[in-house]
Design brief:
By secondary structure, this protein is of the alpha/beta class. It has two domains: 4-32 and 145-221, 3-Layer(aba) Sandwich (Rossmann fold); 35-142, 3-Layer(aba) Sandwich (Rossmann fold), CATH 3.40.50.10090. The protein is 32% helix and 24% strand. The protein contains nine helices and eleven strands. Strands 3-8-7-4-5-6 form a six-stranded mixed sheet, sandwiched between helices. A five-stranded parallel sheet has the order 2-1-9-10-11. It is elongated and about 55 Å long. It starts with a strand and ends with a helix.
Length: 222
């Protein structure tokens, strides 16, 4: 069986590893980043029609001022983000299973105009369409210290990439010659493109979902 290498940060990495183990996969966690909270000024909630989070890290690391926005219609990209928002006290969260642009269309279709987007220091671009989106960074991903990733990867390993930024770092750490012996599963086409060329195989699920990534991994690892 090919080994599975999970490159996402905690706590998501552990959850992915648990799912992988239940599927009979041999999983190893080597995080490329660790999330770190940022200081931010919380604007008045009445300036906005809706709240958008595109990462579960934002819900976990925004701090106590996140509660100021519980009265706004809440939207999330992905089930994990929606779950983290509910755990943070948001009673109803509309979860999109695609990307930021898709959920922006949903927000606009629901009749909202001005949106507060709490996210990381770097985020995937969103086509706002008719919306006015104000983005505030509440956390950043800090690159892990050199963990000798390239030397630790066995030939034939299947790597899981959960963000475009992680794909960029992976491309820096793993050279073209080594890539030919490694398989890649990225959470989205954008994350896949960030990893660069030359992998033994490279694919993304039809929707950006951890379970769908692992379903692809099961077929590759067997």
């Amino acid at each position: 069986m090919r080994p599975l290498v999970i490159l996402r940060p905690e706590p998501g990495a552990g959850k992915t590893a648990d799912r992988a183990t239940r599927l009979g996969l041999e999983a190893q966690i080597i995080p490329l980043f660790a999330p770190q909270a940022l200081h931010w000024e919380a604007p008045a909630p009445d300036r906005y029609d809706a709240l958008l989070l595109t990462s579960a890290h934002a819900a976990r690391l925004a701090g106590e001022r996140l509660a100021d926005y519980r009265g706004l219609p809440a939207y999330a990209v992905g089930r994990a983000t929606a779950k983290a928002m509910r755990e943070a006290g948001f009673a109803q969260v509309v979860a999109g299973d695609s990307d930021g642009t898709a959920i922006a269309r949903r927000i606009a279709a629901d009749g909202h105009g001005t949106v507060l987007h709490l996210g990381g220091r770097t985020v995937a671009s969103i086509d706002a369409g008719p919306l006015r989106i104000e983005r505030i960074a509440v956390y950043e991903m800090v690159r892990a210290a050199d963990n000798g990733l390239a030397e630790r990867l066995e030939a034939g390993s299947v790597l899981l990439i959960h963000s475009p930024r992680a794909g960029e770092v992976l491309a820096q750490l793993v050279g073209l010659e080594q890539r030919a012996s490694l398989h890649l599963i990225a959470i989205s086409p954008t994350a896949l493109a960030a990893c660069g060329p030359g992998w033994a195989s490279a694919q993304a699920p039809d929707k950006p979902d951890d379970e769908r990534m692992l379903a692809l991994a099961v077929r590759l690892c067997e």
